[in-house]
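Newbie here. three chains, one complex. Structure please?
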Amino acid sequence: MSRWVPIAAAVLVAAAAIWFAGSGAGRPDTLEERAQVVAAGLRCPVCQNLSVADSPSRLAGEMRGEIRARLADGETEDEVRAYFVERYGEWVLLEPTRRGLNLVPWLFPLVAVLVGVGVWAFVIRRRPPTGEEEPTEADRPRVAAELAGLEDVP
Amino acid sequence: MIAFVGTAALALALTLAVYGTVASIAGLRTRNASLVESARTSAYSVLALVLVANGAMLAGLLSNDFSIAYVAENSSVDTPTFFKVLALWSADEGSLLLWNLVLAGFLAAVAFRFRSRRPETFPWAMAVMYVVIGFYLLLVLGPTTPFATLEAVPLDGRGPLPLLQNHPLMAAHPPFLYLGFIGFTVPFAFAIAALITGRVSDDWVRTTRRWTLAAWVFLTVGLALGALWSYGVLGWGGYWAWDPVENVALLPWLTATAFLHSVIVQERRGMLKVWNLSLIVGTFALTVLGTFLTRGSILSSVHTFAESIVGPMYLGFLTVVLVGGFGLIAWRREALRSEASFDTPLSRESVFLGNNVLLLVLTFIVLVGTIYPLLAEAVTGDRVSVGGPYFNRNTAPVMVLVLFLMGIGPLLPWRAASASSLLRRLRWPAWIAAVAAVALALVGAGAVGTAVAALAAFVGAATISEMARGVRAQHRARGGSWPAAASTAVRRNRRLFGGLVAHLGVLLAVAGIAWTALADRSNEVTLASGERVRVGDYELRLDGVQTREEAHRRVLVARVTVLDAADGDEVVRLQPSLNLYPASSEPIGTPSIRVGTPWNGLRDLYLSLVSVEDAGPTVVLRFFVNPGIGLLWLGGLVIALGGVIAAWPARSRAAPSPALGSVAEPREEVRV
Amino acid sequence: MVVAAVVLPIVAFALLLATGLGRDPRSVPSELVGEPAPTFDLPRLGEEGSVDLAALRGQVVVVNFWASWCLACRDEHPALDEAWRRYRDRGVVVVGVDFEDTEEAALAYVSEMGGDWPLVTDPGSRTAIAYGVFGVPETFVIAPDGTIAAKTIGAVTYAWLTEHIDAALRSGEGR
């Protein structure tokens, strides 16, 4: 039991540090930051596959200007996004809206992780159908090798 | 003339590939060794012929032979020689020639490597490789025609796509990606051969271990160079856009990484046989899927073959690979029974399996995100996008788990670990993580940054302590100096140390990615000549705009001085530019970067030119401060180095002979 | 059984991929056809005055987004010129909106290519964004009632212009 103590103490210290680091957050979002968030979720129409926030193209720059102007006019982030969807379609959103078929990519990662854990547990618990066999004479060197591998020495 | 030579060479190569397939199998069936041998040596002729075809195209490019359509479309008189050579693989038909060359190279290398001693499955493996190269040779002999000629020969060519002739880095990353992609053909071929012949013991794993590692190293370097190209050339301040083209290159890397780990479990414990075969079939299939999605113009818009037969051909080949590969595995499932079972979840093999599963989860998340737009359009008819925010949100948590398991996996022994010895080994890494977290919290990093740093410190400390443990044990056992003990420890266990070095590389890369992402500061600045504007800790001053006429383009250069906002000292002068190509739609920028070093806080200062207004002149610039991104490039290099260490043949032995039945490799090799 | 369980998902996957064959990743259907055309009042290129779309209500308006650096725009120029000359007497107005360009380059292009339909500049590309423009050239036909009747991406042909202008003219007469 006592072996747990140093590890637990270290984990507690790290957790406290992370909590402390996070406690300073919550700065008020400036217009520029809000515009950045909206732009990062929109796809640049003239690029291969960049967001409006990332694209160096001139049109993306002007779209960032449009976003800023609309936010400054008092529109919410969602209203600005809706404006672009109205013009360019759902295509312009880099994350599909969560409805209908789009739930497939939204739910898939969670399902994949759950299935993955299930596969792992299944394989770990599975026993060969023949059950454990006694080692034959031919297996002796291998058994010896495996036992050597058990030592802590690398 | 050139066109004829090229096409004839390709046609001959295809004929030989068909012969090689038939002769390999027939030779095996009729126990005719000389037939098998002739199939083997044909590989050299295939390589020579494909070299001739590539040489013909190169000659056409260098001699401005615009009677060849490919030359006319992708080169011009004014194109600099370097970019003429590069044009060989800067467009689809030419890059398929290069693809065939690399594949023929691997084919000939396999033929050479197994010239004397060879596994019994060798003829089948050769047959599989011949079928693969036969497919790709067929692609350049009709569905695409690299040597198509023009009736009316133009006086000058169109030149390469501006983006592709903008930077020399473009030269490096496709060949490396090809070497990586195509290299997986070798383990795939031996795996299929093992399945067909029913010799599904561990031979194929041992035979192809170094081939797989080599392909993986090439793919790693290719991915890193691709990211470097994106960062250094495209001018958007980032390096990875989760573009389908990038995703399909990442997918086989993920499954191959899983494979490299799980084959160790098979070698050690005789487990995960179906798993490993599935991984290598999957890896190879993903390389085919990648070429299908990018070259079949399904997801990327650079090439279009809407009307051509190329897309269906790739799809047919992919289906054959998947059905054949997984069908054979299902067919042989009785012979693939595990020889052992897991003793406890707390063992190295179970952590390896856990990380394997997570790497596959990552693979499927990226795959589903990449092809979901196809599904949506097929079902609802709507155009949707799945981009960076989706992939970042969903892959990051899985990556964190992968990192954690990567840290503790090597600390665990095979079969069964005692919790107390694990806890003892974790003590130092845990405290180093705690110290790192406190330090980062004190310098004002956010919660995420602090957590990532703590995790990276934990994994790094665990990895280094594992290396140190090996060296200490060596020193204890043999005495001598510490460096000598270290060098012996590494030499006697290259595989373990190579793996640990690669893990450190992954940590460096993750540190670079997280640092840059969390500290990302980009600003858009409009500057008139002589004007100074403050941006964060810096001031930018526009010293002037110059126009430079080059043979193939006009270059607008903004001369900008970056000053320290605190004391007004000059930090660096940067000269981002816009390049105007005559045949281009929009001007293409070239960013200017002050590379971060340990002496300036690893901060890259990155400036790209968005537009130039004639009046003034006034320029619009984007200025990025990217700290730590150098760690990403360094990490890529270290990962590749780890792979090279792991693959390096032991010096003391003659060339290992993977041909020999089930005899395990010498202890030092496998011992962990 | 096991083999079928392996093969069927693969076939389904291949069929899904097959739907992508022949798909042009670039062509995104417009959301705007049938919707009211976004209004604009843009300054003329290289001269005084502006073009106000609202003032053209009741007429068929062809809005063409172009740029001097755009090669396909050179291809479609004669078609626009011909349509403008054929239909201008029937109240059809062609408006060329210059996209991501410099005034100097745009004026040089105009003097080289000819054509005398009204051209405007689009400061900040606000109008281009309002029309959901992906690149140039793109061409919209606006019916007399102010709704967008048709849109095309890439070099427009004379046949496409006459078809959609005629249809828009008829829709105006029908009311």
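Moderator note: The longest strand of chain C covers residues 61-66. Chain C has five helices and seven strands. Thread marked as resolved.
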